[in-house]
Amino acid sequence: MVNLGSLFGQSSPPLLGLDISTSGVRLVELVVVGKNELRLERYASEPFPRGAVVDGNIENIEQVSEAVRRVWKKSGTRVKLVALGMPPASVITKKIILPAGMSEDQLEVQVESEASQYIPFALDEVSLDFDVIGPAANSADDIDVMLAASRKEKVEDRVAIAEAAGLTAVVMDIESYAARAALERVTSQMKGSEGQIVALFQIGAQVTHISVMLNGETIYEREQPFGGNQLTQDIVRSYGLSFDEADAKKKAGDLPDNFQADLLAPFLENAALEVTRAIQFFYTSTPYTRIDQLFLAGGCALIPGLLDIVASRTKISSAVVSPFKGMSLGPSVREQQLRSEAPAYLVACGLALRRFG
Question: Which residue ranges does the record assign to the SHS2 domain (predicted)?
């Protein structure tokens, strides 16, 4: 069995969640305090030079590993074991049904045999892992097994980055799975969440990832090519700035008076249109006809006015998700700063949660 770096396996504490995205790297360290209470011990981020990561692919390992080294040092942690994420588009997942009662070795052989039917690459080019979900719904003699596979070089690139930064990758997860794990912890604290259809829109720099869940199960997933870089490019064109200058001024709110009317308002309209289109596509391509709760996450989630326009256009109860809701905060965490940054840490938080199985 070619292992995907314990994609589903148990992790060994202590463990950092390390989210490598298009725009930068985010680190989260969680610990348990008291009776089953989690504490956000540390979090930090570091941007990448433009082009270091493109469409989930590592284009410059040296630049990315150097940023990882800086974020680790900045955080103040001493933990060197990390959980990393893979972009959903880089991983093939498939739920299969196998006979119950097989040993681990027998399962491995059977999973490899089944995987060859679903993976369009030679198995020696692939990192593969599996997880037994539980008894099959319609047969007491069978089990549901989730298999996951990715091209070896994509996994090895991320492992190499961790190693170059002096860290050790012990868990490899799928970014969308990590985000859902973090969101599920938050929604489990909400009253009346049972039976609700929940949509998560993670709006990143280049891509918006949509997940729709019912009682913890994913019923729909999709990516759309829309993100915050579109607004940055508009700023570049309008004000003659470099991309990095435009991005910095956007984050600092240091833009001319006409920015809101001329650039921000059209961007927000476009973002709301993307969200409503995605919801309509969900309705027309699944048996479901409602969404009860909509969450925004990602680096763009807190752009002023975005939540209001999405709620107005969709007519759905909407909120910006904080993955650290209900956690206590470590002494180095600044609460006010965290409030403005938390939605961007959904994946990193979900990866850090792997410490607790």
Answer: 15-183
